[in-house]
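Re-run with default settings, no changes from the original entry. Doing this only to confirm the output is reproducible before filing.
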Amino acid sequence: MKKKIVIGLTIVILLGIISFMFIEIKPDGSISFDIDGYYKRHFMDEDEFVNLEEEALKLETNSVAGKKLVSFEAEDLNGNKITEKLFKRNKLTMLHLWGTHCSKCIKEMPDLEKLYKEISKKDVNLVGIVTGVKEDENKKEAKNIVKKIGLTYTNIIPDKSLIDEIVSKFDYVPVSIFIDQEGNILKTHIAGANSYEEYLEIINEVLKDVGN
């Protein structure tokens, strides 16, 4: 009998905890079961939650979609001159922004190198842009990272035109955008790091739009 009472009390207590955590009583007296609401009510103030929503929206938005690739004159990590003509060589180019202090950027690089070798067979290029390079020390660090991992695709140190028109439009890395042979920046973009398989799947979908 005592055991049944203990079990009954335990159930009542658990139900009370669940009610406190997840059940919201609204001003009109109605009741809703809301796990997300619990997190908002007990761990975040309103401003913090709004900021999270804004961050999520930002990741979903390609702010350069529909624009034309700007004319530029930059250099790769070996000092070779690079212009917008590089993007006319292939029917599609994935432009990948990364930074030397971004651990996720560096971690995914072996997959990006594998991706580059695969998509080259489909007339698709991969070009990296090293963001945040303000001093020779940053450039040296980027060069060391590329050499250590063994990247063979082009990585650009952006000039002012690229910084103003593309790099500055994204305040996070890694992020990838797609540019067709005519210099049109496509709607699709990839926010954050991904696996080889995920990148390849997205590229195959983009290729359908540009005429595979």
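The chain is about 45% helix and 20% strand. Residues 52 and 58 are 10 Å apart (CA to CA).
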